[in-house]
Design a protein that fits this description.
It is a single chain. The chain is mainly alpha-helical. The protein has 20 helices and 16 strands. The chain has a 3-stranded antiparallel beta sheet. Strands 7-10-11 form a 3-stranded antiparallel beta sheet. β4 and β5 form a beta hairpin.
């Protein structure tokens, strides 16, 4: 009897601890990547940025062309949908986060793209499904795609706080040297012969910088000048073969170094003055690396005190140096304030583009969004996005967050289940990586949920299917080796059997490319709708890899 009774008071005493422990928030499992894995991912990110660096420019009004095809005929598809427009904007932000471009380049590229978007015809706030990137005219028939509109709105909602965070970041971060090393590694892999000597010299200089961890404006400028000059010497080793990929990457290495040097001298012009005396160089704010917001106020902070150095017995050269310093500080403050104004304007404009109407796309009875709307015919599609395991869930997520559609829409998305290797997984339409992982680029995920389990199982199934067919994994919507009369690759959905509802999947399949190349070389037939998805997967450093591996 005593043996039965004794555990009861023990359990009663322990009950507060038990209640406390089971109510704790589950800690997220963090990825533990090796150094080689991190380098591998960074190289993919850098190669991915090369696509946007090479193709998103004035020729296409700063919009991303849909694809670049090298074989059998080099072709750039001068058309783009809203999803690609948004992903290109986020790719700029990601390139800044990685250190591939300075904030000035991010702002300029964002400004150019948003100015272009402002000129483009829209319908009830929506961008049309396709535009000619040269004329900016909608392609016929004018059509509104629910999923593309939702993607763009969501990406702009992410872009806005990313821009507003810029004023509180230092004008240059040490990560830029790691980013330069990413470019250098790719160039080394493409190089043979005498040119390697220049690369070894450059790499040794870069290693010295990394070990020294420069933390002052003067040190940063000295190193950037040296690297820029060395990068110019590197280019000379490839001039004899300008069609080789290595020549493009050598030029990119030089552009990368020069862009940060220009950024530094633009925002802190006093570093171009003759050497300052010790009592000035150690003056608070003169040599430390400021944030843009600090820089915007530096004139009020420093000018009165700098003026105190002009004593009656000051020599002419000192008077000139002090006056030049005061002018440089004034210019720096003015430039910082102007940049902050531009940032705030761009953030405002990005927010305005998210204001779109959903009522003409939403079916109140089904609580679902229609696939799209034909503007000429004023006709809503009779098909609806009704699967949770599809790219459309992000549109529903965004529209609910904006208060445009009710929460019932989320719970009306279908949750058909199947079992793969004993693990439950949500069925998609075609069983593609795109459907499962595209929204996860920017959406949160939570461990021990059905969606989180689906992501992991989908990837595991893709890996297993690839091994079984002795091929890489990553099957998705993609261009494939069938061409039209103009020798353009065709495009269709591919997926893993058993994970999709579509029973008409082709017996042949294509692995969606994830590592793009500049126009001088690389793999053929890249469609940027898939390309951008896998590109930003590597670039945004979101929770995808952390949760899957």
């Amino acid at each position: 009897m005593l043996a039965v009774v004794l555990p009861i008071p023990a359990l009663w005493s322990a009950s507060p601890f038990i209640a406390w422990s089971i109510s704790l928030t589950l800690s997220r499992r963090k990825a533990k990547l090796s150094a080689n894995q991190i380098i591998f991912l960074r190289e993919i990110a850098r190669k991915t940025w090369a696509f946007f660096e090479a193709f998103v420019g004035p020729e296409d009004n700063w919009l991303p062309p849909d694809n670049y095809q090298e074989d059998p005929v080099p072709t750039i598809a001068h058309r783009t949908p809203p999803t690609n427009m948004g992903l290109a904007l986020l790719s700029n932000l990601s390139a800044y986060d990685f250190g591939y471009i300075p904030a000035g380049h991010l702002i300029e590229r964002t400004k150019n793209a948003l100015q272009t978007m402002e000129k483009m015809e829209r319908y009830r706030g929506h961008f049309f499904n396709w535009y000619d990137t040269k004329s900016l005219k909608p392609l016929q028939p004018p059509y509104i795609s629910s999923v593309d509109s939702g993607n763009l709105a969501g990406y702009l909602m992410i872009l806005r706080p990313g821009l507003l965070d810029l004023p509180d970041q230092k004008i240059l971060e040490p990560r830029l040297f790691e980013a330069i090393d990413d470019t250098l590694r790719i160039l080394v892999d493409l190089t043979e012969g005498p040119s390697m000597e220049r690369l070894i010299k450059f790499r040794n200089e870069l290693k010295v910088i990394a070990d020294s961890s420069p933390s002052t404006l003067i040190a940063l400028r000295l190193w950037l000048v040296q690297l820029t000059e060395s990068a110019a010497e590197v280019i000379e080793g490839y001039i004899t073969d300008p069609d080789h990929q290595a020549f493009w990457w050598a030029q990119s290495l030089h552009r990368q170094c020069l862009s940060f040097l220009d950024e530094l001298t633009f925002l802190a012009p006093w570093i171009l003055l003759p050497p300052l005396p010790d009592n000035l160089i150690t003056f608070p704010g003169i040599n430390g690396i400021p944030t843009l917001r600090d820089l915007s106020k530096i004139d009020n902070k420093l000018l009165p005190d700098i003026g105190n150095f002009l004593t009656p017995d000051a020599k002419p050269e000192m008077i000139k140096l002090i006056n030049d310093l005061k002018q440089s500080v004034t210019e720096a403050s003015q430039r910082a304030n102007e940049r902050i104004e531009v940032i705030e304007h761009l953030a405002l404009k990005a927010g305005e583009f998210t204001h779109i109407e959903y009522d003409f796309l939403y079916d109140k009875g089904r609580h679902l969004l229609s696939v799209g709307y034909n503007v000429d015919e004023r006709r809503k599609d009779t098909s609806y996005y009704d699967l949770l395991a599809s790219e459309a869930r992000f549109t529903s997520f965004v529209a609910i967050a904006q208060g445009q559609i009710p929460q019932e829409s989320w719970f009306s998305l279908g949750r058909l289940l199947t079992s793969v290797g004993g693990d439950p997984v949500l069925l998609s339409w075609s069983g593609s990586m795109f459907e499962y992982l595209m929204p996860l680029l920017v959406m949160p995920t939570y461990e021990n949920t059905l969606l989180d389990q689906t992501y992991k199982t989908a990837v595991e199934r893709q890996v297993e299917y690839g091994k079984r067919r002795s091929a890489p994994w990553g099957i998705s919507e993609s261009g494939y080796n069938t061409v039209d009369v103009h020798l353009n690759y065709q495009y269709r959905a591919f997926g893993v059997p058993g994970m999709g509802l579509n029973e008409e999947l082709p017996e042949t399949w294509a692995v969606a490319p994830s590592v793009p190349a500049p126009p001088c070389g690389g793999a053929p037939a890249r469609r940027s709708h898939t390309l951008c998805g896998l590109a930003v997967l590597c670039m945004l450093e979101t929770n995808v890899l952390s949760n899957l591996f």
